[in-house]
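Entry for the shared binder. Reason: the reviewer on the internal report wants the predicted structure included alongside the sequence.
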Amino acid sequence: MKKDEIIKMLRNASDYVSGQELCEHFGVSRTAVWKAVKQLEKDGYRIEAVNNRGYRLIEDAESDILSQVSIESFIETKWAAKNLIFKKETGSTNIDAKLLGEAGAPSGTLVVADRQTAGLGRRGRAWVSEEGENIYMSIMLRPDCLPEKASMLTLVMALAALEAVNELKAKTSGALIKWPNDIVMNGKKVCGILTEMSAELDGIHYVVIGIGINSNQTQFDDGIADRATSIFNETGKKVNRAKLIGRTMHYFEKYYAEFEKSRDMSALMERYNSFLVNMDERVRVLDPKGEYEGTARGINDKGELIVDRADGNREYVYAGEVSVRGVYGYV
């Protein structure tokens, strides 16, 4: 009898679930059910027990339990995150996922931490990772494609995270994508994604996609407060992080299947572009070879950002060392 299965059964019930129903469903004794419920209460769940009626799970907008059980109770995928490793604290979920990749873990293995002590963002920047506030997770994949295709998986994850955020909290707040992989709300970043790969010329050993979502954080350092925010700050509502993880994995598995069919962004291009914050807007391309300005026209099937320069030339910007900003700021 797995505790996450008890939570799922109680969550999906329209009324109380009797102890007898739980006993019969899981093939255990009433004592075993009672002990499991008591353990779930210790884990932070609110479970109401009424004589002659049974058990009822009480969840509200303030419910935010992040644990192995809570995350598993929201995982409804076929393979993504089915192998789940949860840690209260770790150095970096990306490093953990890479080590699991080296050790032969199955594709779709997900590492989640409540706190990171050595999290990294793009270009080695530090990622502030306090406990009890945000989501820090990394998924390890073994895609059957050439290494040059792997960068597109960053865009696939960005689309999945955006769909999950919008579904749960942000429909009225206009969560959008800043190419290639930042999720923004009201012009500020709420989610960053870092993809790393182990590969040879003709094949990929594994890819790790790390994702951090500013969920319930309320305060940001002065150095980033002008361009970073959280879902809570923008909506005024707490996020159930376990549920947001589960829904992100749901959408990622869905969109990853589309990517696998064509091994490019052709099937997802229109959907991705519909959320692009800089679509048909002026942007500044920060290319080490020389900065320039132009108008963003969305991505192509390779995941490149199409930018039309003022001189009439069209550029195809590849996600790597190149950054794209709005002409007057972050977006």
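Summary line for the report: The mean pLDDT is 92.
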